[in-house]
Protein 1
Amino acid sequence: MILEALANAFGPSGCEQAVRSLILEQIRGRVDVCRVDHLGNLLAEQRGAAACPRVMVAAHMDEVGLMITGADDAGMLRFVVVGSIDPRVLPAKRLVVGRERCPGVVAVKPVHKTTAEERARVLSVDQLVIDVGASSRAEAEKVAGKGDYAVFATRFQDLGSTVIGKAFDDRVGCAVLIELIQRGPYPFTLCPVFTTMEEIGMRGARVAAYGMAPDAAFVLEGTICDDSPKTRDESPTTRLGHGPVISIADRSVIADARLVRHIRETAAALRVPLQVKQPGKGGTDAGAIHLARTGVPSLPVCVACRYIHSPVSMLSKRDLGQTVDLMEETLRRLTPDVLAGRDGVQETTLP
């Protein structure tokens, strides 16, 4: 399973080289054009029977992580977070640190030495340090200097019907996109894009969409799954094992109604369950892509993942497989008529 290699790879925002290399190995020979742009995005084209429409399918390569800001005299490394990480999940977590991928751990005071007040309080990131076993500033700086990265040291595991690992947001999207490329070509020009720096503001997607100039876009994501038992009855954002997910509205985009209708009709034809993510939560590269040039009809399609942006996430293998199948058929059924006009009104130029 390519997801295992992708999830285990070191690739925080701005340092996606290892992930990009893995993807290149998988798609080389399956696309007609492949290049890396100035921001590190991997841009490809797979030509089909017709040149148009140009359909961009994107997934981001980067993961949340930590960036080293310095070392202290005791040999501890200071850091800031790259992307959104809840400080509650950091203490005592194993890390891979620096260019040599050295082991480290987020230092934590022994529980025997803490007061009740300390145990009731969440430590902020600036109160935490990384212990790499160094005993001096100079020794610590040999492991990682200012601007070097660290990521969680979690390794991928197959649990049967589910898998766990780090960085499923968005290595699962990358895995889906690789499989779609390998199942191609499609009736049009497919424009697969593996983007950089989504976790710090959708930066790669913004320039990639401008450069690719697509007529429509799908964004593949590992999304929030909040289906654990709760003290009060409320709708979960998504549920594990209940099928692929579409995001109709989040903080970055409102999905194109034509693409929503198209994927719903395709799911019904395939008899694949389709979840709708609770509106208003999170954001995806679609937030940048849909604003490119004169606008790009866009739709995020997701795999539900528990515990994203933490040291370990979980997803359903069935959800993953159904997402690939649904996206493949959605692309094969996508025609210019699907994108032709809104509400029966065709685009035209006024005299």
Note: The mean pLDDT is 93.
Protein 2
Amino acid sequence: MSNCLAAAYPLLAERLQKTVLAELPTPVSTAHFESTAGLRTISIKHDDVSSAHYGGNKVRKLEYILQRARERGARRIATFGSAGSNHALATAMLATASGYECTCLLSHQPRTANIARTLNMHRLIGTELVPYGGRVDPLATFRRYLQGRCCWVIPLGGSSWLGAVGFVNAGLELAAQVAAGQLTAPARIYIANGTMGSSVGLALGLALADMPTVLHAVRVVDDRFASIARFERLLQKTAMMLRRLDPSIPDNIAERTRLCWRDEFFAGGYALADDTTKAAVRLANGQMGLQLETTYTGKAMSALLHDMAAPDYAGEHFLFWNTYNSRPLPVTTERPPSPGNIPIDFMRYFE
């Protein structure tokens, strides 16, 4: 079923519409691999193929966010991210395909392998790319690029209560796949935890489904963007808004969530990678057939591999939630013949 949340809570579905962008449910699979402690088996939730155009976790959020933008009469979608932001690219691709113009306000970041391809994709689809952060005057930037343009502004990572609802549905979707015998109910789920919308929504969805699974949210951004206190605020707000829209949702749903906050795989900073992260990406590629990266999913995989090799591992079943797009993009990493819509200062990522 593509919308398990609507099936479980029809009043909520009536009051909170979505634009269908994702191909749901996303598949699950089983992977076997050799760890330092012997042969291990995990399940994988493949949100990497959540859309035919561009996969990853952002698609679920954008279904609700772009619907709200349409209801409010927006003609342009604007959002924030870093130069290689998957969120910014997913927003630009899906907004453009849905008939919107799109502005992405992007900041600089440490260089990673995916940035050049991401910028070339923005160039291909005509995203308005605006330098942001550092010494850029935010107020002047907002006035120039957002004011008077019928913009719907999406927060960093698409993480708001509205975006989190997409992952409430994801938790119920996984429970339905467990009930259908497609996988064993996991004792733990490991997910990359950036701006927290995916983790908040998934925690609530698992609680609504009465699954005893513990969500291991592996922090991959600075603590000014992701912290336990911020997580709790977004969790409580999302639960409150769901209850306001549909009183049949349990009033203690936030208290029923099961979360394990993981800080120890941050690897020194956003978009930085240590040897453990790189080794996790190599193992996932070589033994599981997964194309991960070192900024987000590689760190979540590091946590899972660490825990499965620990002396106290007792054979529990774990699941890895793959949030990284695996759909091929029709561009290369080569430096374009001219910048086009890419800010001149961002051409450094092609060097």
Note: The mean pLDDT is 97.
